[in-house]
């Protein structure tokens, strides 16, 4: 019998370890490890608890059960393996430095007890090291990575294991509450978790919105993206299942434009894999710049500005709408993530690590690969990132991507009754005009033009080009 340790694969189907033929029966287990929980936050834990309940129900209706343990993973898994006479433990490979170090400890502890370990690459279509330059190096430029990723054959999804492969559980274990685990309730409303929700989300998107993805994905008010990110982060859907469904959508596309839109969406799945490869080969990027400058970047220390950014009170409407969407939904639209990240680093001149840490605490879909990739892209410190001199203007970004200001008004009620042209011209109004239009909404906390110049100087000094 083999234990299968679920982690970011909270699903029964399209789960390679559950169907690999090396064991006659499998007993599933999930471990709440305090060392890992130290890096967690309420939105993600709430989503995981919801997803575990759905997964446990799936096992229970098949006369098995999901064992829930609390404690350090190496000790807990070794103890359970011994108590159940399991001769092996399987799991899906982790890609972050933290996850890999933990897995090494588990492997060593199990080896000491004479228990085999069996790992599978399950989280990506193409595992790190499988898409490289002709010299065998990992790609640092996405467009070259994409060309190879796009054309490489992909594995198809696999079915869920039959009930006959699932072992009886020795005892019932309870899923803890957030409070049991020492977390407060999340401030945001968290999307429902679980493998069935993931399936609905995928099918809804691929039946319709995927065909307008090319045109609508940058417009936050249209909500035309898949919203699959929490499911992909926590593995309530398998990536092969997603890709199969996307390919079917491409086959069913009504015209060339729709086919093109599907391909653009596939490109986002490739970005996800690109950033996972970057993290795998550069685990230090979670705290260090990927790209070194000659000198340190002299980020400012400005707690008040940071607080205004976190609260969505910067006086830049699109930035504030995004930051408030994050607090309300534990999610933010991709285009707006790019805008708020640029604003933090290039207008407030604050270290990207401050923003990354806030996102880590607030996002339900946080994973270090994508989150770090996004932050370092915006901060011009990452692989294939935004050049330091290309600085988003938050007002024109708002006007271009939310022209009617519907997204802004949805999340910033102080601007609820204000015309779009007034909102997009907020930085140009006098104090009296602002008071008249929306007395409770703040004036811009910085001048974008001035900060743009300051950002250029900051990066030129880091490059050794200015005093
Ligand atoms: C500063 C910043 C931080 C980010 N943090 C995260 C994060 O913690 N977790 C996360 O999953 N994504 C993150 N992203 C990427 C992206 O914003 C989200 O994946 C996307 O908004 C999720 O919504 P969706 O599922 O509707 O996306 P869709 O547009 O429907 O995309 C489908 C999937 O493709 C992947 N994807 C899409 N865009 C990107 C991208 N730019 N980079 C990598 N993968 C992508 C995601 O898995 C996403 O679920 C971040 C981006 C930025 C700029």
Automatic annotation (TrEMBL):
Binding residues annotated for FAD, in chain numbering? 213, 225-229, 265, 268-275
Pfam families per record: DNA_photolyase, FAD_binding_7
- On whether Flavoprotein is a keyword of this UniProt record, the answer is yes
Q: Which GO terms describe its biological process?
A: nucleobase-containing compound metabolic process; response to stress
Domain Photolyase/cryptochrome alpha/beta per the UniProt entry, residue ranges: 1-125
Site (Electron transfer via tryptophanyl radical) residue list: 299, 352, 375
Cofactor note (record)? Binds 1 FAD per subunit.
Under PROSITE patterns, the record lists: DNA_PHOTOLYASES_1_1, DNA_PHOTOLYASES_1_2, PHR_CRY_ALPHA_BETA
- Residues spanning the membrane: none
Mind listing the GO molecular function terms for this protein?
deoxyribodipyrimidine photo-lyase activity; DNA binding; FAD binding
Per UniProt, the keywords (alphabetical) are:
Chromophore, FAD, Flavoprotein, Lyase
SUPFAM superfamilies attached to this UniProt entry: Cryptochrome/photolyase FAD-binding domain, Cryptochrome/photolyase, N-terminal domain
What this protein needs as a cofactor is: FAD
Q: Which Gene3D superfamilies match?
A: 1.25.40.80, DNA Cyclobutane Dipyrimidine Photolyase, subunit A, domain 3 (1.10.579.10), HUPs (3.40.50.620)
Q: Which family does it belong to?
A: Belongs to the DNA photolyase family.
User: What's the protein called, per UniProt?
Assistant: Deoxyribodipyrimidine photo-lyase
Which organism does this record belong to? Answer: Haloplanus vescus
